[in-house]
Specification:
Blueprint (H helix, E strand, L loop, with lengths): L33 H4 L7 E6 L2 E6 H7 L1 E6 L2 E6 L1
Antiparallel strand pairs: 1-2, 3-4
Amino acid sequence: MSYRKEIRVDLGQYRQLLPRDAINPIYEPRFLSAEDAGLDPGELVIGVELNGESKAYPIGPLVRREMVNDTVGGVPILVTW
């Protein structure tokens, strides 16, 4: 017995607001220590921990840039908001 329901989407009801590649990713992020970052204790961040290395990406800058290409713990990652 299948519980899947087919859903059809009319792509004509959507429009592209920005041209392709209009928002440039951050390719070489720079980091500060937690003490020096000056973040509000309630500020949202995206946290990543891989192979013993941890990094935090504040949401504030990601509102404008949306993507960060980085390497954490030797693994290439894409952080997106």
